Amino acid sequence: MALANKELLHNLLLLLICCCLFTDAAAAKLNTTAPCLPDQASSLLQLKSSFAGADSLLPSWKAGSDCCHWEDVTCDMAFGRVVSLDLGGFKDLDLTSCRLDPEFFNLTSLRNLSLAFIDFRIALLPASGGFERLKDIIHLNLSYTSFMDQVPIGIGGLTNLITLDLSGNNDLYFSRPGFQTFMSNMSSLRELYLDGVDLSRTGSTWSTVLAESVPQLQILSLSDCDIIGSIHPSFARLGLTKLDISENNWEGQFPTEILQLKSLRTLDLSYNPMLSVRLTYFPAGNHLETLNLFGTNFSYDMPSSFANLVSLKTLGLTTMANDNQLPSLIYKLPSLDDLRLMGGSDWKKPILSWVGNLTQLTLLELDGYDFSNKSVPTWIGKLKSLQVLGILGCYFSVPIPYQIGNLTTLTELEFGDCDFAEHRTPSWIGNLTRLTYLGISYCNLSGPIPSTIGNLVQLEQLYFQGCNISGKIPKSLFALPALQFLWLNDNQLDGSLEDFPAPLSSPLREFALSNNELTGTIPKSFFQLTNLESLYLDSNKLTGTIELGSNWRLKSLNVLSLSNNMISFLEKEGDMIFSPSFKIKYLYLESCNLTKVPVAFKYLDTINLLALSNNKIKGAIPSWLWKSSLVMLDLSFNMFTTLEKSPLIQIPFLYFLYLNFNRLQGSIPIPLTSSDQFVFDCSNNNFSSIEPNVGRYLRNAVIINLSKNKLSGFIPHSICSLNNIEIMDLSHNYFSGPVPSCLMERDDLIILKLRENILHGTIPENIRQGCKLQTIDLNGNHIEGALPRSLTNCRDLEVLDVGNNQIVGSFPSWMGALPNLRIIVLRSNQLNGTIRDLENDYQHFTSLQIVDLSSNHFSGHLHLEWFENLRAMMNNSNDDGQILEHHTNVYNPVYEDTITVTYKDATLIFYRIETAFKMIDFSNNSFEGSIPNSVGRLVSLHGLNMSHNNLTGPIPSQLGHLSRLESLDLSCNSLSGEIPQEFNSLTSLSWLNLSYNNLTGRIPQGNQFMSFPSSSFEGNAGLCGIQLSKECGTAGPNSTTPRALAHKQYSLWEDRLDAIILFIFAGVGFGVGFALAIVFGPFVHIEGWVCKHICKQ
């Protein structure tokens, strides 16, 4: 028995030894990691080569070493393939290309990829041959990478994805394919973040798409996605833990089923004013931690079960004056420490004192309250645990409550867009010594920055923006030891700038002093702030000389803006100028009185944006200026004459090129760019030729403006090759030949301007359905034939200007069906017939604001029904200041229309058209009969011209209702009767011409009628009054005073011509422009001009 036991023990021992040996062998095998495969290392090194300065950030990424041991790289242990790459947060990586290299997608074993916060400079995600190769990926984070355009379908094909984050890319959108197609294969997705991505094209289907295609979704964040519509109840089928759909355009009722989801922890519906939210029963044990209904249409039928939200930490509500149960319910929320309240539309004097009893609060935000008289929130002083306080859009009839100065636990304090009775910044802010963030922006403060802010030694961020504060900047601000962000822009700060006491050790990263009244020179210490990333000193009165040299220590500087100052630049010969570590990306030197391009810029190899507009730079554009890293180059409003480089310029990542308003000659330069969207403006130069293949080279151009040059010949046929063109402006040149039919056939063109050329032939008739044209401007050519009826396919058309051509046919009444048509100019053509020809039963021209039919051969009666359709001219709403403009898909550019009209007997050129401006010009035709009374219903008219026709009968008294009328010309007709006394009500009328009619009686004497000259009434033998120096009732009908007779003899020869030309042109990207008005020719003695004004008899 003992022997058997001994044998058993021996066998067990052998088995144990074998197990140990086996375990050791397995462990040894597992601890043996396969080295990185060569192709994996090559792909990573290719990615690294896309970044300048990557050696310092990724020092271990070196050829010949094992990539599995590199920073932020993880490999599988068995095969040496890269399975994880996390470069998220590498903001300092300086991109030298605008796209991911195709070789990067050889990392086909990737399961986790994060490129978050790397600035790819509005680059494209690869449409094909890219993400679809990463079949194994489960976590993809491309947030805040500045990618733009269509989200590629390749990402939608990654069926194993669990997390997708594209948030913070405001220029991304879903179109082709749409959102539904994109999400159809993502059944494994658990987390989806699309904040800021444009989902406006998805309509109201997004919620049903997600409910059907992504059944396992747990976290959804769609903040600020421009989504319009309602939320479908089927969305409640998802087991969501977090839902953020704030800052959209939701409508209708929010499904109550979602509120009852047991899994839900966070619900943010804030800033959706049209979204109705009604709270329902909350069961006990509810786990909701965040509920933000801030800025929604919140129904105040609060259920008693609201008190069951025992886990609720954050609550945002729009308060109402009639809700008395809210305080008692909120008191029952034991975990609440974050409260955000917005004033409702009916809340004028809030009663919020109950908030002072919530002493556990650590965060309080108050938005849109009227704190006047007894409602001043002194109770804030009770909240001794408060760490964050935000007061936004509020009114105070008394000074800011000093009790806030006793909240010594505060770390963040913000006042934004507030109206204070006491306009000085309170000195007690210096008591809040724990503050790390202080923001006071766009409040009506004045006076100096209090010196007590120097006590805030823990302050990291200080924002005093748009507050009209004045005086010098306190020295103590520059000495704050922790300060990283200092923004004092848009104020009235003056005096000279102080030196930083220790610039080399200063942690300051962003410094903004734009739009102030600062004088003197820029201290040298500003250029020794080694941690500085952004410096904005533009729009001041700074002087002196800036030395461009290697002594600059701004190694971290990305943005430098010195525009609109009176500084000059000094370059030392033989100096290296900038050290190799100087990596500036955005440089703004507009309106700086530069006379040449500094040679120092030759060494800015990482520059992305260079703005040198509105200087005095002459001569040639240097060849070295065309940096391959450039995304935008603005040389507009200078005096350049030539280019050192050939017309074809390799500049691969360029998106914006502005050469407008120079003196450039010869052939237009053509940048060879691979960017997907391109804006090109060479207008207002002396270019005389253009490369015939321009359309093939600029295939992806979105905006092309070559107007006001000396280009001649046929419009190049290659423009038909443009893929994405939205705006084409070739106006004011010498182009001849026909209008290319391909321009009218396109389904992407929005603006077509060919005015003032020598084009002939007819307007192409092959305009297809789906036409997106909003403006067609062919004014001032030799266009013949009739207007094609296919123009009705352009349902978005707003402006049609074909004036000053040779167009024939009848009035195009069929265009009245276009719902958005605002401006139609047919002046100076050969059109004839009547304008009554209404077709069908629908309303016509309901959006029309300007109609100019002058100088044609129209005839017949004016019918009241036609004017009764002009609904836009009957609208008396005050929309002054809004400009008729067109937005494009490209980043930021806005385009504004141009129109030439006769107004107050002057030729007026509008380069910006206000939507409030309404005008009718039917002059120089053969209309007959009476003026319809219905014209008097067009109460928003500014100008009415029916002169030089055959109109008869009295002037309708209803015209006295046109309260906005500024210019009225009914001269040279056969109108009879008296001038309506109702005209005394036209207080806006500043120009009137009723001459050469058959009017009788006394001229009205009220208001502005005494200011009109006699020429306004001459040629009416039966009129009398002071204006004609002709007394009423005492003289015969044909008697005139010697003064009136002399005036009549010479009035036609000395009639004043005020020709006002308004030049309002856009700067960079057709953006904000400026106005210049020239009044010339006050007295013109030209017989030809006089003949043009002789009335028809």
Automatic annotation (TrEMBL):
Listed transmembrane segments: 1059-1084
InterPro entries associated with the record: Leu-rich_rpt, Leu-rich_rpt_typical-subtyp, LRR_dom_sf, LRR_N_plant-typ, RLP23-like
Protein name from the UniProt record: Leucine-rich repeat-containing N-terminal plant-type domain-containing protein
UniProtKB keywords: Cell membrane, Glycoprotein, Leucine-rich repeat, Membrane, Repeat, Signal, Transmembrane, Transmembrane helix
Family: Belongs to the RLP family.
Pfam families registered for this protein in UniProt: LRR_1, LRR_8, LRRNT_2
Any one GO CC term of the record: plasma membrane
Compartmental location: Cell membrane
Topology versus the membrane: Single-pass type I membrane protein
Highest rank taxon of the organism: Eukaryota
Species, as recorded: Paspalum notatum var. saurae
Domain Leucine-rich repeat-containing N-terminal plant-type intervals: 38-76
Main subcellular location: membrane
PANTHER family (alphabetical): LEUCINE-RICH REPEAT RECEPTOR PROTEIN KINASE EMS1-LIKE-RELATED, RECEPTOR LIKE PROTEIN 30-LIKE
Residues of the signal peptide: 1-27
